[in-house]
Design a protein that fits this description.
The complex is a heterodimer. Chain A is mostly helical. Chain A has three domains: about 80 residues, no CATH class; about 170 residues, no CATH class; about 90 residues, no CATH class. In chain A, the strands form four sheets. A two-stranded antiparallel sheet of chain A has the order 1-2. In chain A, strands 3-6 form a two-stranded antiparallel sheet. In chain A, a hairpin with a 5-residue loop joins β4 and β5. The N and C termini of chain A lie far apart (about 105 Å). By secondary structure, chain B is α+β, with helices and mostly antiparallel strands. Chain B has a single domain, classed as Arc Repressor Mutant, subunit A (Orthogonal Bundle), CATH 1.10.10. In chain B, about 60% of the residues lie in helices and about 15% in strands. Chain B has four helices and three strands. In chain B, β2 and β3 form a beta hairpin. In chain B, α1 runs antiparallel to α4. The chains are: A mainly alpha, B alpha+beta. The interface between A and B is medium-sized, with 27 and 23 residues.
Chain lengths: ~375, ~110
């Protein structure tokens, strides 16, 4: 028997075991000893023609098989035992467990997508989900009670309908890749916890969760209780996947837009420029040009909202104070020029670069107004 | 007539009967029943019946390791089982005779 067959047979046997779960463990073991061996033997006889569908065709579903066996053996039916042990008593915990699972799954997804927003709500829901998980694993008969809740029945009916459709069949054929998904999911959880979110705190936690989800995948296939770990893990992993994909899409989207904007060649503009002569006397109404003779234009906005776009400096300062907005001409500071011979190249001054020696401007496009003091 | 309904009442007797001569494991019992003409017998019913007869103390069981495949649990008739077989067998024979008589003219 190959491994695929093995898994499917095991799946079938686990389904039987689950349908008999309310019986004493020793009795279940006895049943599985011979009825289980029978299933294995039937599967072996099928040889190459074996498939889960063929097995179910031959023996009925695991549940049906268990039901028939139960009836022939005279065991109590599962519903009556649940009623005997107080099925109604479990309705509240069952409902709590079911909805905590739903909320936990949604929350895990949202937490991953929003990259850790709404931490308080997440913690609250997480605690509920953890409590529900504990409850499901510890409380006997709770799973049966959950499966009998009207909302569970509705959900299952809807799922069955989907599974019977073509979409469901296509999905079913992906089952082979389930182990791949389990590994991918564990990686996504580990990545989500360590890289994207809290690198320091979450490292160990994320690794532990990843390992747990890896373990829960195959378990959940046969033991529904593991869904309480497997489903939120899936939600979180899908959220991480979505977050990563959207980050990638955003990055590719913004590049072509931002690139021309940030590299547009434009002469550096400043709010204002003050020019001093060699004696430290401020020059006003100076026209500035770059080395190619282009005026160093800059836009200046006055108080009235009117603007100016030219190369004449310094501009009046626009001051907002208790008197409102007003324009102040002049230079707001003074400089001390270094006492140096006037013929040498300009050394650094204490406040600002002293004006370069008056070299002729190499451009003839505009009649240059060389630094002229007007007062 | 649906034989599965008939089988329900007499499966105990049938299982005890096929174990009278020779011990057998579940699948074995199932095959013998089918070879004996009870095609409609369900796999799970046979295993359930074996469990019930065992729990009622009419059968004993022992496990035989098998070199290929899973271990097999053999069932054998014990003394109470044999007594029950004789008893139920007589009940069945008189029942069947009565039914035969009723059907005699018609069928």
């Amino acid at each position: 028997m190959n491994t695929q067959t093995n898994t499917e047979v095991k799946h079938y046997l686990d389904g039987m075991r689950e349908a008999l779960a309310d019986l004493p463990a020793a009795e279940v073991a006895e049943i599985m000893d011979d009825a289980g061996a029978h299933v294995v033997e039937v599967a072996e006889e099928m040889g190459d023609e074996f498939s889960l569908a063929a097995l179910i065709d031959r023996l009925g579903t695991p549940r049906a098989y268990a039901e028939e066996l139960r009836a022939a053996a005279g065991y109590p039916s599962p519903t009556s035992t649940a009623a005997d042990t107080g099925g109604d008593r479990l309705v509240f915990p069952a409902r709590f467990a079911l909805w905590s699972l739903v909320a936990g799954t949604v929350m895990a997804f949202g937490f991953a997508v929003t990259r850790g927003d709404a931490l308080e709500v997440t913690v609250l829901v997480g605690l509920c989900a953890a409590a529900a998980t504990l409850l499901v694993f510890r409380q006997k008969g709770l799973l049966t009670a959950i499966t009998r809740l009207p909302e569970t029945v509705a959900i299952r009916d809807a799922l069955t309908k989907v599974l019977k459709s073509d979409l469901g069949k296509a999905f079913e054929s992906l089952r082979v890749f389930q182990p791949v998904w389990w590994i991918g999911r564990a990686l996504l959880i580990a990545a989500g916890g360590t890289l994207v979110y809290r690198p320091d705190l979450m490292f160990v936690l994320a690794l532990a969760l990843a390992a747990l989800s890896l373990f829960a995948g195959p378990k959940a296939r046969t033991d529904r209780r593991w869904l309480w770990i497997s489903l939120p893990a899936t939600g979180f992993a899908l959220g991480v996947l979505l977050a990563v994909l959207s980050a990638l899409v955003l990055r590719f989207d913004t590049y072509p837009i931002s690139a021309p904007v940030s590299y547009t060649p434009s002469p550096p503009t400043r709010h204002n420029i003050y020019v001093f002569d060699k004696d430290g006397k401020p020059l006003t109404d100076v026209h500035l040009y770059d080395e190619e003779g282009r005026p160093l234009n800059a836009t200046w906005y006055g108080c009235t909202g009117a603007d100016r776009h030219d190369n004449r400096y310094p501009r009046p300062r626009v001051v907002h104070d208790e008197r409102g907005c007003h324009e102040e001409p002049g230079v707001p500071f003074t400089v001390v020029m270094p006492t140096l011979p006037t013929t040498t190249t300009a050394p650094p001054s204490t406040v600002t670069q002293s004006p370069a020696p008056t070299t002729p401007i190499p451009s003839t496009t505009t009649p240059p107004t060389t630094a002229t003091t007007t007062g | 007539m649906d034989t599965s309904q008939l089988l329900k009442g007499v499966l105990d007797l049938a299982v005890l009967a096929v174990l009278r001569k020779e011990d057998g494991y579940g699948y074995d019992v199932l095959r013998r029943l089918r070879q004996g003409g009870l095609d409609g017998v369900g796999d799970a019913s046979v295993y359930g019946t074996l469990r019930r007869l065992y729990n009622a103390g009419l059968l004993t069981s022992y496990v035989v390791p098998s070199e290929e495949g899973p271990h097999r649990k053999y069932y054998s008739l014990n003394e109470p089982g044999r007594e029950r077989l004789v008893e139920s067998g007589q009940t069945w024979k008189s029942f069947a005779r009565a039914l035969d008589d009723l059907l005699g003219e018609g069928a």
